[in-house]
Inverse folding.
């Protein structure tokens, strides 16, 4: 019953009118003209709507099942995976030498939002493969790249990331899985990993696990952790598959959502593995992928909000209930559609202004990653490192909230699984947890990123806002967007200032406000995005666009965000400035 | 794995130190001394912990099943229901003449929170029976009361409420179910009702449905709706059960949560029914129960937040992960417990300050209902009518948020069903929807209650805050609680003033801010409750209490609420004062 329509028009607006990607001066971007991106987005949209979205409730209903060590994915997943592979979607931004299409990451992000919106559980199989392949690409030897990448880029073999153990999630220093060197350069890996997405399934002939483990004799804690490639089947010299390795799925978890993705307990029993990158530098190898992986999870928050919003909007236009208080809008019918009611609109406008603002923010982040990777731009790398926890934490928190609000539009039907709205909320929920729970994102932001390189990156962000404001101060129609943005940005500066002053004396004064800071920062970023979108739409209207309604709608939505969402920054600031005491006052025993 | 401990100590504090119930001058309250309420609460707590809580995950896992028209409840529910009946719990506040215990509603609320926290799906069977019995008590003829009440009070027969139809939920004027008079005083009811909680099940020998239907020839719309008693089995003159009536369960819904409660599609096929109250005045009959029913749903929001908080707190004390940034707290262990981390504390303090504040608010509401019903106090009735949508809307929204936050403390384990945290969130979600979706509560508050009786009730509320502030202005230690309360109350007055001024010109100006107003009001109420609790704890400390830690903890939690939650009122006011335009600007087609 629920449906998905790819937001290609909005994506095109962001890529070309707001971010002006062809003029961005990033390698490969000049090729991304309107026609080219339109063709890609439309094709990805088609496969999302027609192939992936119909399988989304199937995956939710059936889930995965483990029988005799084999994990069976839901009906239709295997065929769909074949089609995705045939069309080369899983690796459009992978290097051509390994079979990818060599496009910039921004395009992977745009199509990824569609795939994820249409079917998050399904899309994770290829998303995790992409992450694992990126790690091998960044840290593997030439031989390792030759062995693993071509098959992973094509998704004939899929990949996984193995970090968590039963007793350690965030605190990976507690890790127990060990890797015994065998003298021939290989290792024997033994231990148990949990929460391994796509850890075992029936859609690929081999699975390449990247596993964090400890080499005996290495340093204690997090500094003694190394990263290993551990395949399900060993690979012979000629590239053919050899013996089954000592790795198996012990259990699949019953979860709140993403039922179509197998979340596995993985048991390693002296499994053969190969060191990836340097010994004891496993965390460094993980961290190089972290920005991209976390951006990908932020995207999931947006994606579920988008599909939930689309369906809530359709329902609000269709369902007749009550009358417009200012006069019937559907006098011939028994009642007016839900959308006439101010509180339904308030709800829908919150969803709309979030998803469109978040998309611009995410795409901007993706261009920064491309600039960092393709141009070696350290400033862009620093800025996106700063923004990554905001994208991950804010977009997944708000994305989940929006799925809950979308569900609310349906009334009682929103609670019935048959109508599909519950799944969006249940699937979106995981994105707040994995790839670093959002509290850890806030800690990363305030405890590490804010002061990184002497605070240069946050200063660069403020400078960016200031420059944008100055450049557009004289533009007719911009004042109503620039004023609230400036106020919000000032709140963010006030919070950063508070942390600098008080955090010196007491680190808890900063950390007790970290979560509020992450959300405050998120609002300022979305405020900035809405100001940038407003400017683009004002320019389009001034130049006589053929589609004035689209741009007038953008302006109205920008106004909503400024009036109704941005005031939240003041409350976040007040909370932050109340300091550590209210939060830390109680002894644990007195809670 | 999850557990529940009844918060009897906190309940006793609210009943006796804060609300001082024995001195309240309400009929029946003088009997409610500390020892008496302690005995009741401990007994209810015991049955909640030992009987109901262990069945909660069973109900979630198994759900209900429909076979050949019979609905089977989950394993253990039937036995537990027998025990609840034997102990007289379902009707402790029902009149003694029908087999109840005649206690005030406040006691039903207190034990109801426990039952609901321990097992919401189970407790709904008796909760709905209570609601249906209350309607018969209020509107039935003596003969009807004699026929139905004794069996319903004992829960030998359970009850249901049948309002919703597939095409109409909130807008009951669209209702199609019809009731044909038979000439002998009875009616034949035909139509379909959906979302009927406890509509069919195997735990009672008869089910008494209260059904809204239309008598042909009556007024159009909502004014032509009447309420009927429609039993599953007809009842003979001698009180024995007769023929099966023309009502059956056509389907049970697959839902996001409360799986242990059967949500039924009920088909009425010329079923025999009896008019309850006056013809065409069915809505009035429904509305007299509405305050109580909505308070009961608000209670569910609190209850799920409470059990989720208890388990999150236990996990935060137990799970070792990372180190306190100011120095190790568990130097002998591999890591410190989660609770040392400021953001975990921020999260836990939000939960704690919500649940305790919400409990005080709910209990205060229950005393107002008792004062209205037992003393015929019109002022109390007006005030609780005003506060009811706030209790329902704010407590269920925030209650759900808190279950989500509690789930977050568990990290990845929070998403795994086995750990139990997902169920609290999934179960809590429904309370935002049923008994009037929260947007409808906001509409009721702003569109009806605020201006009711010339705005007298909201003025009474403000007067109440003012009097409390004045009376305690000189109390040492109260200033830090009174100042933020006054500021928040001023924001609420500002919002009410805005609605009065702008709503005259454009009703959308008020309705577009209704949801924010409901939350603004909720924060002020919890702020008031925290100020009242602070005063009670200051008094206890001044008089040399034997438990200073309890009262110091109350003060610290009050400070947290004032510093970290109450500032939210400013943002709600800013949103409200931005008016209708940002919300209503778009044409529906342009969304």
């Amino acid at each position: 019953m629920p449906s998905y329509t790819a937001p290609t028009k909005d994506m095109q607006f962001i890529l070309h009118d707001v971010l002006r990607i062809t003029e961005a001066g990033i390698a490969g971007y000049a090729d991304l003209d309107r026609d080219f991106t339109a063709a890609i987005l439309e094709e990805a949209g088609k496969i999302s709507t027609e192939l992936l979205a119909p399988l989304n409730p199937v995956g939710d209903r059936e889930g995965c099942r483990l029988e005799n060590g084999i994990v069976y994915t839901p009906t239709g997943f295997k065929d769909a995976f074949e089609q995705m592979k045939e069309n080369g979607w899983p690796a459009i931004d992978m290097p051509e030498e390994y079979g990818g299409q060599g496009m910039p990451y921004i395009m992977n992000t745009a199509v990824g939002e569609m795939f994820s919106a249409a079917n998050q559980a399904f899309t994770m199989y290829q998303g995790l493969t992409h992450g694992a392949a990126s790690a091998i690409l960044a840290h593997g030897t030439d031989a390792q790249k030759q062995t693993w990448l071509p098959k992973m880029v094509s998704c004939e073999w899929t990949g996984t990331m193995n970090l968590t153990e039963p007793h350690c999630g965030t605190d990976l220093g507690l890790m127990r899985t060990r890797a015994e060197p065998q003298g021939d350069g290989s290792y024997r890996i033994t231990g148990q990993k949990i929460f391994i997405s796509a850890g075992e399934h029936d859609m690929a002939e081999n699975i390449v696990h990247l596993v964090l483990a400890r080499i005996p004799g290495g340093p204690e804690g997090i500094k003694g952790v190394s990263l290993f490639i551990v395949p399900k089947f060993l690979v012979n010299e000629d590239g053919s598959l050899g013996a089954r390795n000592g790795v198996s799925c012990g259990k699949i978890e019953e979860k709140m959502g993403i039922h179509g993705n197998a979340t596995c307990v993985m048991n390693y029993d002296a499994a053969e593995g190969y060191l990836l990158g340097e010994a004891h530098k496993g965390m460094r190898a993980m961290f190089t992928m972290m920005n991209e992986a976390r951006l990908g999870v932020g995207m999931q928050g947006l994606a579920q909000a988008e599909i939930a919003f689309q369906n809530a909007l359709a329902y609000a236009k269709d369902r007749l209930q009550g009358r417009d208080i200012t006069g019937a809008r559907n006098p011939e019918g028994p009642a007016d559609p839900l959308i006439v009611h101010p509180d339904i609109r308030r709800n829908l406008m919150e969803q709309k202004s979030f998803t469109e603002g978040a998309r611009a923010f995410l795409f901007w982040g993706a261009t920064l990653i491309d600039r960092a990777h393709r141009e070696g731009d350290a400033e862009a790398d620093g800025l996106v490192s700063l923004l990554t926890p905001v994208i991950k934490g804010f977009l997944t928190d708000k994305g989940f909230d929006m799925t809950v609000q979308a569900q609310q539009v349906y009334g009682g039907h929103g609670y019935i699984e048959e109508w599909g709205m519950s799944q969006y909320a249940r699937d979106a929920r995981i994105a707040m947890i994995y790839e670093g729970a959002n509290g850890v994102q806030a800690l990363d932001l305030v405890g590490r990123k804010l002061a990184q390189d002497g605070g240069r990156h946050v200063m660069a962000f403020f400078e960016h806002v200031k420059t944008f404001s100055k450049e557009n101060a004289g533009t007719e129609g911009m004042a109503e967007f620039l004023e609230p943005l400036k106020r919000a940005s000032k709140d963010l500066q006030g919070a950063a200032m508070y942390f600098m002053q008080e955090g010196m004396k007491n680190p808890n004064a900063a950390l007790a406000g970290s979560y509020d800071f992450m959300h405050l920062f998120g609002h300022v970023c979305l405020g900035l995005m809405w100001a940038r979108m407003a400017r683009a739409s004002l320019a389009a209207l001034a130049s006589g666009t053929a589609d004035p309604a689209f741009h007038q709608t953008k302006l109205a939505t920008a106004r909503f965000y400024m009036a109704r969402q941005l005031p939240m920054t003041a409350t976040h600031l007040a909370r932050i400035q109340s300091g550590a005491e209210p939060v830390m006052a109680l002894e644990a025993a007195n809670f």
Q: What stands out?
A: Residues 282-318 of chain A form the longest helix (37 residues). The radius of gyration of chain A is 24 Å. Residues 421 and 587 of chain A are 41 Å apart (CA to CA).
